[in-house]
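Entry 14. Ran structure prediction on the chain below.
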Amino acid sequence: MTLLDGKTLAASIEKELIDEVHHFKVSGIIPTLAVVLVGEDPASCAYVNMKVKACDRVGIVSIAKRLSEDVAEDELLKIIQDLDKDENIDGILIQLPLPGHIDTKKILEAVSYQKDVDGFHPFNAGRLLAGIQAFAPATPLGVMNLLKSYDISVRGKNVAIIGASNIVGKPLASLMLNAGATISVCHILTQDLTFFTKNADVVCVGVGKPGLIQADMIKEGAIVIDIGINRLENGTLVGDVDFESVSKKATFITPVPGGVGPMTIASLLQNTLLAAKNRKLKDQKS
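Output, structure tokens:
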């Protein structure tokens, strides 16, 4: 069994990004990411702080807009529109989830697809599905980059994806399909989850349910990507996979923490640099 070490790979990516950011700044482009946080949800606040710190480490300028829980939808839209019009801002990230009184789809679509470094805009989602270059959501992109770094090809492999969210499951399915995999997307209505996981060469799970995937649910030699992150009552962080038992059957497996999580942050930084590159190309043409 080999651990898929996302923490070490993410640190390596950040080192490369430091040089890239420096080259951008020399050319007059200062890569900038705006992060919008609504409310004071502890997990959301922690994620935003992690993203801001990651930007600082590589030299990307971060602008954090922290808004109250009861902010009006129109006010939030106006803030996003102002950020969108600012030519010095390359990427805009809306930290999810948003409060119930706000239409999440409407807010995500308010971010122009050129600055949608989270890859949630329908334009980017459509291009991703069609296999055309676009911003891919950071977590699925991180999964693919992690597999690539270990020379793991999914071409011709059966891949079971557990979870069908717009943030992880669906875009990951698109990336896997584009890479030549045969995919099964399972969700809360799937009748026999074990049927799909036992027949999969690669199992990817991200639903937020500790211990969902047990050893008897995967075949010998499977590759297991645990995207879930859950905090137990004792404060321990665990994924959706029973790591102790599953790791004895898997050839490759991601740890939690230290697997997909760090790669998500690294991929967000990469997307921001891609947005800065697009801005530079646009400036050169004008």
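DSSP finds ten helices and eleven strands in the chain. Will compare against last week's run tomorrow.
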